[in-house]
Design goal:
The chain is mostly helical and 118 residues long. It contains four helices and four strands, in the order E-E-H-H-H-E-E-H.
C-alpha cells in the first residue's frame, strides 16, 4: 500500500523526518543515546550527530545527557524534545488521514511488482 513520509523543513533549513523522530522515541524508551542507536541499528556517532543537529536547531536542547547513576548516566528528552516528537507524530497522523483515499486511488493505478527506481 502506498504511504506518506513527512519531513518538516524549518525556515532555518533544519529538517525533522522519520529518522530523527524514531531516534527521539528510542532515546525516550531506552534512556540512552547509545542504546537507542543500537536498537535502531545505527552507529553511535550518527545518532549523536542527529541529536546535536536537533539541539542546535532550537533555542533549548531537545535531548540532555544525564550523569552518574548506577549505569553511569544516559539521556532524556527535554520537555521541548517531547513536544517536537508529539507535534511530528500528530502531523504525520493528520497527513495520513487526509491522504487515505488519494493514496488508494494512486495504488489502484500503479503497476504491481518491483520497478526500477530512479
Amino acid at each position: 500500500m502506498a504511504h506518506l513520509q513527512i519531513t518538516l523543513v524549518l525556515d532555518s533549513g533544519a529538517r525533522i523526518g522519520p529518522g530523527k523522530a524514531a531516534l527521539l522515541e528510542s532515546i525516550h524508551a531506552t534512556g540512552s543515546i547509545a542504546a537507542a542507536a543500537r536498537a535502531m541499528g545505527m552507529d553511535y556517532k550518527r545518532a549523536w550527530l542527529l541529536i546535536d543537529s536537533l539541539n542546535q536547531t532550537f533555542i533549548t536542547p531537545t535531548v540532555e545527557r544525564t550523569l552518574g547513576g548506577v549505569r553511569g548516566g544516559g539521556a532524556v528528552l527535554t520537555p521541548l524534545g517531547q513536544d517536537i516528537l508529539g507535534r511530528y507524530r500528530r502531523l504525520e497522523t493528520a497527513m495520513r488521514d487526509l491522504a487515505v483515499s488519494d493514496l488508494a486511488g494512486l495504488e489502484q493505478r500503479a503497476k504491481t511488482g518491483p520497478i526500477q527506481k530512479v
